[in-house]
Amino acid sequence: MTQINETKPVETNASKASEKVVQRSSFALTMRRILKDPALLTAVVFIVILSLIAIFSPLVAYWTGHDPNAQFRETGMSPFGLPVGPNGEFLLGADQLGRDVLVRLAYGARISLAVGVLAAFASAVIGITIGMISGFFGGWVDVVLGRVMDLVMSVPFLLCALALVSVFGPSLTLSIGVIVFFSWTTMGRVIRAETASLTKREFIEASRSLGASPLSILLRDILPNLSVPIIVYTTMMIPSSIVFEATLSFLGLGITPPTASWGGMLADAGANSVYLVAWWLVVFPGLALLMSTLAFNILGDGLRDALDPKGRRIKPRKKKGNTLFGWLAKGKASEGGTHQ
Amino acid sequence: MIRYFMQRLLFACLVLVSLSVFVFFLFFVAPGDPARVVAGDKATEAQLEQIRENLGLDRPIIVQYGSFVSKAIQGDLGYSYRNQQPVLDLITRRIPATVSLVIGGVIVWLAIGIPIGVMSARNAGSKKDRLGQTFILIGLSFPTFVLGMLSLYCLYFLPRKAGFMLFPAGGYKPFLDNPADWAWHLVLPWTTLALVTAAIYARLTRGQLLQVLGEDYIRTARAKGISEGKVIYKHAMRATLTPLITQLGADIAFLLGGSIVIEQVYGLQGVGALAVQAVANQDRPIIIGVVMLGGLFIVMANIIVDLLYTLLDPRMR
Amino acid sequence: MPLIEAHNVTIRIPTEDGVIYAANSISFSVEAGEVFGIAGESGSGKSVLMQAITGLLPGAEITGEVLFQGQDLLKMSQKELQDLRGSHIGMVFQDPLSSLHPYFTIGSQITEMIHTHRKISAEEARALTVDMLEKVGIEDAESRFDDYPHQFSGGMRQRVMIAMALVLHPPLIIADEPTTALDVTVQVQIMDLLDEMRRTFGTTVIMITHDLGLLANIADHAMVMYAGTRLEIGATESLFSNPAHPYTLGLLKSSPSSQETGGKSLEPIQGNPPSLLDRPRACIFAERCPQVQNQCRSARPPLQKYDDGAEALCHFSAHDTQAMTVDTGLQKSASKRPIVVDVQDVRLTFHAKSMFGKKRSTEVLKGINLQIHKGETFGLVGESGCGKSTLARVIAGLIPASAGEVTLDGVPILSVTGQRWRQMRRHVQLVFQDPVGSLNPRRRIGAIIGDPFRIHDVAHGAEQKKKVQELMEMVGLNPEHYNRFPSEFSGGQRQRIGIARALALKPSLIIFDEPVSALDVSIQAQILNLMQELQRDLNLTYLFISHDLSVVRHVCDKIAVMDAGQIVELNQSDKLFAEPTHPFTRKLLDAIQDPPPLQESSARKLVETEPAAAVFDGAVMEASL
């Protein structure tokens, strides 16, 4: 054991040095990157405020004294029957039926967030499960599941949504169902590809050679390594679900009136081109929709950069990829033995 | 090679069959009586019975489906419940508007999206890149109809209120009647469609290009002393074509099946608008026809993309 | 006048983590017509140096002076450098697989370069290309002109790369690890070709490599780099037989030589290379130097110049710190030991099934027979694709064989399934090649090493932790690091983790699949020594798979040479090396390139010692800013 005894002091030495690195590894480093990203922070603040508004929308109604579906034909409309613009009573104006846009926006946030988050999570769960099974087991399982994904992706989804709604009539559950059915494949494909490439890695073979069961390998070895794509793609699916829902509502296929939803409000504004004389009918709901999707997209992008700095460039003018990065990676691999 | 395409063709048929089964049986299990849609509210029970017999609705579902399929293969998609015109005619009449919209849109979005993606990737991490990424994020987040409504308000209504016609509010003018008028009416729809879609292409181009620029063969190209422009546009872009074409094929196919939102916003009488009207009218043969047509476009696009792959990538030959 | 002359080149690369000091005040000069070698381990900055001075690293900040044919490369604009690349400086890269554009024909990739630098017609360019392709040994070049890279083998692709680099007859060629990705026998062909070409065209070659044996056999002069610093430079002959810097000496002593018999432990360089994020102070090698003194840790070393032209960056001169080698007493007489593994006529055929076409089958293993005795190390050598890794997995029970039987401790294992198969997993373990890929990056090493205990329900909780820590200590890891993630360890340390995991259940057989081929020489020696000590202390049985004959000879008692799914020769190591019978074995042995043996005493004299300040000019200036 002489050799080992000789080796040990060096290893200990190395570890002392790497202690500094360890302290700000992984989580701390991610947090540091997040805190350095003003756009990401703004997006988070926006999302928090939006959620609060959605949760406490009855308070908004109480505060303004306007029920979301109540029509104020006296105060909310001009003598010619046109809606009034933003004023002291209707902060963001009134719509063509004399309803308070602000209150309806607050209630609409509930629908958008609920549909966005629910649909994103449901699609994520389905996509992750099917993607992992398909990628891990390969063979005919993969062929069948892969073909199913191809099939779903080959369906003209908006047209099918139209057909479904025309049969069953518009409803919230149907909207979510349609969104989930056509969204899970995005996650499924990503997870399938990642799982397939992880399965080829040697640490999976190591687990297998130790006699670990497939379930244990999937849950202990593969799932934790998928956390980055799962977080990022789930976040990214929220805005697309929100837009999907708004689009369905805009086409009159989503939430049934008079329930307030952003897409529905825009559809109302578009009908008979009311918005041409009442800009607030399109600007405020449009802005609400745009800001929300933007916030979630920024969040997703920012999280990806923070969690997976590989895709992120460091300093301007850095065009070299492989050589430099391959070499940096090697440099980092030996960081454990840094003598600082 | 041929075997591969046989497989793809087989799969295409599978997609179309599943799709037809889906829509057909969807309407079969649906509540509501088609005969009443055809006849209107005042029809008597005897009239309804007559209509059911004419439409073959009294036959077993399997027989109905069989006759639907055999007719569809011959190009007969049935007749509209509303005005008894052949569905295929109705759709074909709508195709020029949709195709005009898509072709112009594709050109504009490629012209915007790819250069932005290239600029972003070439200057990764710099101000230019941040600009490009801001464009990408906003474009990805902008719901099509919001952008459409806003541009109508700003570029049609406000100028008109000021007393001049910058762009028309929409509507489709046939190309052969007056090409200039055709283009003028389509400028707003094109840009709206292109701006939101360009973001997707910019992101795709940026991501792919960043990856390719890290490849060893790009270093080889630089080591050969080729100009940077040639390195990017010849060597690097060549390798990013494949994913771009996949995306393009899918997008064109989806839009040809009906660019529903844009057509709705700008009042373009295209295939998508037809579908929306059909839903409002409960006109099932048209809905089935449009869905099947959309599926056919997608399936065809997939096969064309596969063919292009083998042309583009010598390793696939 | 030298063709290329570098003075105090310093390269810094800004990154998110800080500034990387990729090269510190490097000077060298290369005479026209010679082969100049740059040796170093990964992260030594050898590739970065050459890429930066040819303008291929635009993100790097470079200071100093690099005179090429009298002009300073570092003062040139991107355009001027671009004109120089290809026409005056040709380059050959490591991986011919990824260095050629997959979508263009090889001919067009070469003619493109000709057209960039010369105004000639397409026919002339084509003729030039075909001519050059023939010269580098592409048969039937005229018709292969329009083939794509994937239609060539690895060695052929590297020939195409060389043809591309040479076609404009540049005075200088930079070859960056040109043979590392290739099989040994192909390596020899490529090196011969490079050598022949430089003689034919009078080209100067700068050869970047980590392979000291290869360098010793081809280079006229060489420099040794470590962590961005040039530690030694001089004529190759004396550099390798009589190194002036302790690092060079350490590298040579940690490389297993095919000349020496096994059973002796190598002398590794302890520790790991430093981070390049620190501004270099004092001697950069001090932490790992066997003859380190206080001075080395506090003062920058002076440049010592010797009478034979060698220069070393050291306070002292290199000398052996230990008696040459310690006999570890591993000479074993294997015959009377019990058989652990018995492989009988194992065959494996892969069937490629498809929906329409007929079945195609590939025979991967064509009847393998071998026995491994208790306590011995059995080597399996062969080139890539010969089936050696597949055979290992069949023996490990991970891939079912098509025919034949493998018995482990007398128990047939190929037919077992279910619970029995899981039980069998205890008795045979694998150690993998890739120290990064073989450990789950998201799990702590306590959990990774403890996995065998968990899966086989051997120990839990505190008991498991205790056992894991014992194992960690056994393989030379600090047990306090129980809660760390793999990314916090260096390559060599990760390989120790892999070994600890394999040891956990005290298996009858441990299969090492290329365990050191991803490691640098100095680290490789640490791991090889660890393996031998563990074997001696615990009486372990190893199956050792490698493509590197020197390593195999160093650790193995018995060697089987594999080619195309068959064992072509099987013998005791010494006998196999002394009297190879099969032509393939001879071909492999001929391909080995060893550095010249170390000389016992130094005949050279120190003539001048240049103080540190002058040497570190660039760095000092920078520090004072």
Automatic annotation (TrEMBL), chain A:
Transmembrane intervals: 39-63, 111-136, 148-168, 230-255, 275-300
One of the GO BP terms on file: peptide transport
Residue ranges annotated for the ABC transmembrane type-1 domain, each copy included: 109-300
Membrane topology category: Multi-pass membrane protein
Subcellular localization(s) per the UniProt record: Cell membrane
Pfam families recorded: BPD_transp_1, OppC_N
Protein name, entry field: Peptide/nickel transport system permease protein
Domain of life: Bacteria
Entries under InterPro entries matching the protein: BP-dependent_transpt_permease (IPR050366), MetI-like (IPR000515), MetI-like_sf (IPR035906), OppC_N (IPR025966)
Entry GO CC: plasma membrane
UniProt keywords, alphabetically: Cell membrane, Membrane, Peptide transport, Protein transport, Transmembrane, Transmembrane helix, Transport
Family that this chain belongs to: Belongs to the binding-protein-dependent transport system permease family.
UniProtKB/TrEMBL annotation, chain B:
Residue span(s) of domain ABC transmembrane type-1: 95-309
Family: Belongs to the binding-protein-dependent transport system permease family.
GO MF annotation: an example: dipeptide transmembrane transporter activity
Record-linked Gene3D superfamilies: MetI-like (1.10.3720.10)
One family name in Pfam for this protein: BPD_transp_1_N
Main location: membrane
Compartment(s) of residence: Cell membrane
InterPro entries documented for this protein: BPD_transp_1_N, MetI-like, MetI-like_sf
GO CC field: plasma membrane
PANTHER family assigned: DIPEPTIDE TRANSPORT SYSTEM PERMEASE PROTEIN DPPB-RELATED
UniProt lineage: Bacteria, Pseudomonadati, Pseudomonadota, Alphaproteobacteria, Hyphomicrobiales
CDD domains (alphabetical): TM_PBP2
Originating organism: Cohaesibacter marisflavi
Transmembrane parts of this sequence: 95-114, 135-158, 182-202, 244-266, 286-312
Keyword Coiled coil annotated: no
Keywords, comma-separated and alphabetical: Cell membrane, Membrane, Transmembrane, Transmembrane helix, Transport
Membrane topology qualifier: Multi-pass membrane protein
Domain of life: Bacteria
Protein name as catalogued: Peptide/nickel transport system permease protein
Signal peptide (from-to): none
UniProtKB/TrEMBL annotation, chain C:
SMART domains: AAA
Annotated region described as Disordered, given as residue ranges: 253-272
InterPro entries: AAA+_ATPase, ABC_transp_ATP-bind, ABC_transporter-like_ATP-bd, ABC_transporter-like_CS, Oligopep_ABC_C, P-loop_NTPase
Signal peptide (residue range): none
GO biological process: peptide transport; transmembrane transport
Keywords assigned: ATP-binding, Nucleotide-binding, Transport
Topology term for the membrane: Peripheral membrane protein
One MF annotation (Gene Ontology) recorded for this entry: ATP binding
GO cellular component terms, semicolon-separated: plasma membrane
Family: Belongs to the ABC transporter superfamily.
Protein name: Peptide/nickel transport system ATP-binding protein
